[in-house]
Write a structure and sequence with these properties.
The complex is a heterodimer. Chain A is mainly alpha-helical. Chain A has eleven helices and no strands. Classes of the chains: A mainly alpha, B alpha+beta.
């Protein structure tokens, strides 16, 4: 049954879609979350606690609520939605929409992990580098990045892992194209346990492999 | 060389107030003060990490008040050394070279000379985690010196070192300053280190300069109770001056000074190590002589702190343990003690 399931093109596509979109969300979190995490770790900006609260929000609130919130923002009735529509970006029922949701739920895991990484680098190292003639960006590339890249990889994996498991928000924003969790839900409700189980097993195997990598990386960080 | 003109720096909970300092080329200048006095904040301002609220910072006739940190060529050795943990010793030392247009050969020569002067030959491939405190400090020094900084800042250079390395580090710093003729600004709360290393300095308290000038002059002629206590003076008491003569307030004890106290002077101080026992047969070069008994003897670390009571007044003296043993001194013993007129400082 397991082999048959993995031969099913729809299943492969759904799992591949889940993994590729989740990994894309991890990469986007790296690009967007790194400057944000640095800012939160290093600067005393006004409203810092509020920003941190907003970042943590997706961890706390029920995920269908996240989906509804994204749909409301991206709808025709909202200026953001109108702007997105004008520039040709569709959220509802698209890969973009799924990516948007996955990034939203995964970003807190990336930002919090990398922020802790930046906080573990003493500011004095950056200051010493600058007094030796290196500019702010060069200092980041030569000092801060080499000391925190493991946290960034860990953050990407955590964000990706979290994104793979996302169901509640995705099902509201984009039932189609189907991600693995949505397909498991659909097969379960339409055909029962027997048909949903193999997909679930495949997803568990993949998630398990990802978490093993995560454990290995976190071990090397401790060392 | 480096001139701090009317510097003010206001933070929500602290402020540096109207700092004026002039540091000459090749000076070993020390900013001295207790913890929380604003010394390190002043260093951060000089480095450019925190902008001054007002005032000007002039380096070799150029106003660098708003110049970026990396363009000032002012290097620092932090108290925890701030070595880059992912780079080995030689990579740490070479770190700043690419930003100073130093030809490769010149940099290599300078590297070899610094490594040899600072005794780092055997550890150039090691990483900071495998170095002792003293080695870390020497690497940090080499890393700063290879770029020929205009000024080298030292932030409490001995506070993170074991006593063994402390003495060694003092000797290295003295040697480097003498051999390279570099301008150094050192922040310290230990006056003994300052006295050994620095030629000039400023005492700072709550963000204001209390006294500045030659270190030896600050040591010998503190101008306030605070500075006097900070440079290790004891026997600090209020005085009154009658007909140009000095007496301890509310007491009949008269003190002979070598100078005429100024009318505004209201306090005196005597270094505790300058009070000594006087043998009855000794000459009368010691003008201030008292007869009294040893009230208490307490340990002051290596030395002993002895309270000597005469009439209703107590003097504090610091004597070596052997001194008490040799003179067979103990609590309650009646002794003659005194100090020279030159030992009395008034402010």
């Amino acid at each position: 049954m397991l082999i048959e399931t993995i031969k099913d093109k729809d299943v492969v596509n759904a799992i591949a879609r889940s993994i590729s979109l989740s990994f894309s969300a991890g990469i986007l979190a790296f690009l967007m979350g790194t400057p944000l995490a640095y800012l939160l770790a290093r600067k005393n900006i006004i409203g810092k606690k509020i920003i941190e609260g907003i970042i943590d929000l997706p961890i706390m609130i029920p995920h269908p609520v996240v989906g509804i919130a994204i749909l409301s923002l991206a709808g025709r009735n909202h200026p953001i939605g109108r702007f997105l529509s004008d520039v040709g970006i569709q959220i509802m029922g698209t890969r973009t929409g799924i990516l948007c949701v996955l990034l939203f739920v995964g970003l807190p895991f990336y930002v919090n992990t990398v922020k802790a990484g930046f906080e573990s680098v003493p500011v004095r190292l950056e200051n010493a580098s600058r007094t030796l003639g290196a500019g702010a960006f060069t200092t980041f590339m030569r000092i801060t990045f080499p000391l925190t890249w493991r946290h960034m990889i860990l953050g990407i994996i955590m964000c990706t892992a979290r994104a793979i498991s996302e169901f509640g928000a995705v099902v509201i924003v984009a039932y189609h194209p189907m991600t693995a969790p949505v397909m498991i839900y659909e097969r379960f409700t339409a055909y029962g346990l027997k048909y949903s189980q193999p997909i679930a097993v495949w997803l568990i195997i993949i998630s398990f492999i990802m978490f093993v990598i995560l454990r290995m990386l976190s071990k090397s960080i401790k060392q | 060389m480096i001139h701090l003109k009317n510097i003010n720096l206001t933070l929500p909970s602290f402020a540096l107030k109207d700092i004026n300092l002039h540091i000459q080329k090749n000076d070993f200048f020390s900013i001295i003060g207790p913890t929380g006095s604003g010394k390190s904040l002043l260093l951060e301002g000089i480095m450019g990490l925190i902008p001054f609220s007002s005032g000007n910072l002039i380096l070799e006739k150029k106003d660098i008040t708003t110049l970026a940190v990396e363009k000032r060529n002012i290097a620092i050795v932090y108290q925890d050394f701030a070595l880059f943990p992912h780079l080995n010793v030689s990579q740490n030392i070479f770190y700043g070279v690419p930003y100073h247009k130093i030809p490769k050969q010149t940099a290599q020569k300078k590297f070899d000379s610094l490594v040899s002067t600072l005794g780092l030959e055997k550890i150039t491939k090691r990483f900071p985690t495998n170095l002792s405190g003293g080695e870390k400090q020497r690497v940090a020094l080499a890393r700063s010196l290879i770029i020929n900084p205009n000024v080298l800042l030292l932030d409490e250079p001995f506070s993170a070192l074991d006593p063994v390395f402390h003495e060694e580090a003092k000797l290295f710093l003295k040697k480097i300053h003498e051999e390279l003729g570099i301008t150094i600004i050192m922040v310290s709360h230990n006056f003994s280190d300052v006295l050994y290393l620095a030629n000039k300095g400023a005492v700072i308290k709550n963000g204001s300069v209390m006294q500045k000038g030659e270190i030896i002059s600050i040591f010998e002629h503190p101008n306030s109770k605070f500075t006097a206590a900070f440079v290790g003076m004891k026997n600090i008491h209020p005085i009154c001056i009658q007909n140009g003569k000095l007496a301890i307030k509310n007491n009949n004890i008269r003190i002979i000074t070598s100078h005429k106290p100024s009318k505004t002077d209201n306090t005196m101080g005597i270094r505790p190590e300058e009070i000594s026992l006087i043998a009855s047969s000794s000459s009368y070069t010691v003008k201030n002589r008292f007869h009294g008994k040893i009230k208490s003897i307490t340990s002051n670390g290596i030395f002993l702190l002895v309270h000597l009571q005469t009439q209703n007044f107590q003097f504090e003296a610091i004597w070596p343990r052997s001194y008490l043993r040799d003179h067979n001194l103990d609590i309650g013993k009646i002794v003659t003690f005194g100090f020279h007129a030159e030992s009395v400082h008034t402010f």
